[in-house]
Amino acid sequence: MVPLVIGPSGGVLGDGGTEPVPVQRTFAAARSVEFDALLLAGAPAPAADAHGSRDAKAAGGGAAPVDPRVLLLVGEAYRHAKAIGGWNGARQVYEALGIASDAPGVVSGDDGTAALSLVTDLLARHRVWDRFPALM
User: How many alpha carbons fall within 13 Å on the CB side of residue 27?
Assistant: First the structure.
């Protein structure tokens, strides 16, 4: 696997108490077609340069606000039957998109290591076709 770190802006991620992690893609530059799976380390609030939906009906149903570019990325990955995993509040992203947290190929772990292990198992199948049952 070749992981890429996606963040709200270029530079590094870190809170001063941990080793800084370089950001390789920004929310504005990352699209789901680049990735076989996504791991969400939480639900990032909208950044200052994020422009939300212009449709008042698409407000997210009262869930905590999540950066719309993250919602786009995760929504596309879900529709493309890619594995999605998360921890530390990632369920807020699922809720904002109307995705069940127990949907096929959507996993949550107690921490990043657990989520990575679950997503790695899903990657062996390449896509999660169970998400879309056959109609015939």
Answer: 21
pTM of the predicted model over 0.90? no
Handedness of CA 64, 70, 72, 74 (dihedral sign): negative
Instruction: Say how far residue 35 (Cα) sits from the centre of its chain.
Output: 11
Structural domains in the chain?
A: 23-45+63-130 (3.40.50.880)
What are the tens digits of pLDDT across the range 73-105? 999 999 999 999 999 889 999 999 999 989 999
Residue 106, phi-psi category: left (phi > 0), alpha (psi -120 to 50), beta (remainder): beta
